[in-house]
Design brief:
- This protein has 226 residues and is α+β, with helices and mostly antiparallel strands.
- The protein folds into two domains: 137 residues, Sandwich (Jelly Rolls); 78 residues, Arc Repressor Mutant, subunit A, CATH 1.10.10.10.
- The chain is built from nine helices and ten strands.
- It has a four-stranded antiparallel beta sheet with strand order 2-6-4-5. A three-stranded antiparallel beta sheet has the order 1-7-3. It has a three-stranded antiparallel beta sheet with strand order 8-10-9.
- A hairpin with a 2-residue loop joins strand 9 and strand 10.
- The protein is elongated.
- It starts with a helix and ends with a helix.
């Protein structure tokens, strides 16, 4: 298992910032957990435990309100840490996470990870940058939900999958229409109506879950202007 874990660690973005002793610590105090599609990785208001890093697959981060309504905060792909804000800032997870598809999650012992942060300035700086990027993304998400019109929010969702997840203009949505509506901060019916308008105007092509962006410029303008 250590050989496989060593290989997985070597493929992470942070591996090059670690010393040989730190790598050895991680090997002794980490393991990889396989999650199937729709499996819950952690639940809101449960106690935080390990540091979690996405080795492969997609993970949905979402928050549930008191009336049991959910808001999708983000879809995280390979190379992302899960809910570091909760782990370092609270005793309880402030959101939930579930596997969108088959996913591998690297579980790192908290104390081991914390000791590396304390001792390794280069690694700590990169982690702060990652946390800052996450914070900026959530701030922009909130601004979008409050100030953009529905076409702008849906264009933003399309761009997110195109540029941040799949890095191409043709892809298959990994989420249900209801989950996509949550991500756009709207109802399923409004999401379907608006995305069909995009299709009718030939801004996109859509067959089932498979989407092709025909006019990236228009999608970007809609996203920026809201």
């Amino acid at each position: 298992m250590n050989g496989k874990l060593d290989q997985l660690l070597a493929e992470t973005w942070f591996y090059r910032y670690l010393t040989s002793d730190e790598i050895e610590k991680l090997l002794k105090n980490s393991n990889v957990v396989q999650y199937n599609k729709r499996d819950v990785i952690f639940k809101q208001n449960t106690r935080t435990s390990h540091i979690m890093y996405v080795v492969s697959g997609l993970v949905k981060i979402y928050k549930t309100s008191r009336n049991n309504k959910s808001l999708s905060l983000s879809i995280l792909s390979e190379g992302s840490f899960l809910s570091l804000f909760s782990i370092f800032g609270h005793d309880l997870f402030q959101c939930s996470a579930s596997s969108v598809d088959s996913s591998q999650i690297l579980m790192i012992d908290y104390a081991t990870f914390a000791s590396i942060i304390q001792q390794n300035g280069g690694f700590s700086l990169m982690l702060i940058k990652k946390l800052s990027q996450d914070g900026n993304y959530l701030t922009n998400r909130l601004m979008s939900l409050f100030h953009k019109q529905l076409p702008g929010r849906i264009a933003e969702v399309i761009l997110y999958f195109s540029e941040q997840i799949y890095h191409k203009n043709e892809f298959e949505f990994p989420l249900t229409r209801e989950e996509l509506a949550e991500l756009a901060g709207t109802t399923k019916e409004s999401f379907i109506r608006t995305i069909n308008e995009f299709k009718h105007d030939k801004i996109i092509s859509l067959e089932g879950r498979f989407l092709r962006i025909n006019s990236l410029d228009i999608i970007k303008v809609l996203s920026e202007l809201g």
